[in-house]
Write a structure and sequence with these properties.
35% strand; Elongation Factor Tu (Ef-tu), domain 3; 402 residues; elongated; alpha+beta
């Protein structure tokens, strides 16, 4: 029995040694290709999308939200008292300066004008008579048939009537003005609002407004930029007008509109740390209306030889920002970069790259330094696809006078 136990133990030891030898053989054997040719397995090649670092003009822009404002708004009021006869325009109509808007009942003012004209005629007749008396007394006084007192009285009467005629003429002028005010005309070019007083109502002079007119051509947009941009703004304004590009959110078919900065405020808003600007736009198609919000872009600086790449190529690591650069042997190397500006999918690189470098813009997550890549697409020179609103892809903004 003891001999049988020793035999079983020996067999188990031999089997264990065989299993261990087989495992070592499998562990030590190099990987082979799927074809079973016994060759080592090649390292994985990562497909990537690349772009080329290019040098050229780049505009440093500031994006903000603008509010459309108006430079002129008028509450049209009556300058005389009377009944509104009619409104000769429609609500929302574009009117020109001098266009007729309302008619006030003119009968009272026509009568006052006639009364003033009659008073003038009366006093003119009396003046003619007084001047005749003055001439007659003057001739008689020379011959000794009239006293000096009579001559002076005639002269005084003529002067009184002359003054009365001047007053009569002033009364006529006032009556003509009042009669003219019965036709209420637009004081500016603009767009009318809702009619606030309908025909048939009585109005008083300088009382409630009849209609409000807003000037829409040209129109202004008020902007606010961070105070850190003030030095650049001032330098650009010293060279000429600053260009402003705006787009209306949601208006994808309207396109962008160009304007120019007319005004930079003389103080920074301490509460928000911003400086206020005002830009003017022709608004030829009347797309801009007061209090409307718009997307706005202002060019702060134009870099002539900026080195740019797509922003998608830039990665963030513990040591800072970096990109993968494709080498001549199709391996990748890590380059730490310094990003000076970013705008609409493009980044300006001030350190870490040179013109012509090929950077990976898609597929970075599978990469490590030294890995081989295959280029499945080239994204070009880093120009981004057009975006909604105001984008760099729409082309450079031309400054006023350029």
């Amino acid at each position: 029995m003891a001999s049988s136990g020793k035999t079983r133990a020996l067999i188990a030891l031999v089997l264990a040694a065989g299993v261990a030898a087989a495992g070592y053989t499998l562990y030590a054997r190099p990987a082979t290709s799927p074809a079973g040719e016994g060759k080592p397995r090649a390292a994985a090649v990562v497909p990537v999308v690349v772009a080329t670092a290019t040098q050229g003009e780049f505009q440093v822009r500031d994006h903000t939200i603008g509010t459309v404002s108006i430079d002129a708004t008028v509450q049209v009021k009556s300058r005389v008292e009377g009944q509104v006869m009619e409104a000769v325009f429609t609500e929302g109509q574009m009117v020109r300066k001098g266009d007729l808007l309302f008619r006030i009942d003119p009968l009272q003012y026509q009568a006052q004008l006639k009364q003033a004209q009659a008073a003038l005629a009366r006093d003119q007749a009396q003046l003619d008579n007084a001047q005749s008396d003055l001439k007659r007394f003057s001739d008689l006084a020379k011959k000794g048939f009239a006293t000096t007192q009579q001559q002076e009285q005639a002269s005084a009467q003529a002067k009184v009537l002359t003054a009365a005629i001047m007053a009569d003429q002033a009364a006529i002028d006032i009556a003509q003005l009042d009669l003219g005010y019965t036709e209420i005309r637009s004081p500016i070019d603009g767009k009318t609002g809702r009619i606030l007083v309908e025909a048939g109502n009585l109005v008083k002079a300088n009382d409630m407004p009849l209609v409000v007119i807003n000037q829409l051509q040209p129109i202004s947009v008020t902007l606010a930029l961070p105070q850190r941009d003030l030095p650049l703004l001032q330098r650009r304004m010293a060279k000429g007008k600053l260009a402003v590009i705006i787009a209306i959110p949601g208006d994808n078919n309207g396109g962008r509109m160009k304007g120019k900065v007319d005004f930079i405020n003389n103080a920074v808003d301490a509460a928000s740390g911003t400086i206020q600007l005002k830009a003017s736009f022709d608004n030829a198609d009347l797309r801009l209306v007061p209090a409307q919000l718009v997307d706005a872009v202002i060019v702060l600086q134009t870099l002539d030889d900026a080195l740019t790449i797509p922003s998608e190529a830039i990665n963030d690591g513990q040591a800072g920002r970096y990109v993968y650069v494709v080498q001549a042997d199709k391996t990748v190397a890590v380059h730490n970069v310094t990003v000076a500006h970013e705008e609409d999918g493009r980044s300006v690189i001030s350190e870490g790259l040179k013109p012509g470098d090929t950077v990976v813009v898609d597929g970075q997550l599978r990469l490590a330094p030294g890995m081989k890549v295959s280029i499945k697409a080239n994204a070009g020179a880093g120009q981004p696809a057009a975006q909604s609103g105001v984008s760099q892809a729409e082309g450079p903004i031309q400054q006023a006078g350029e």
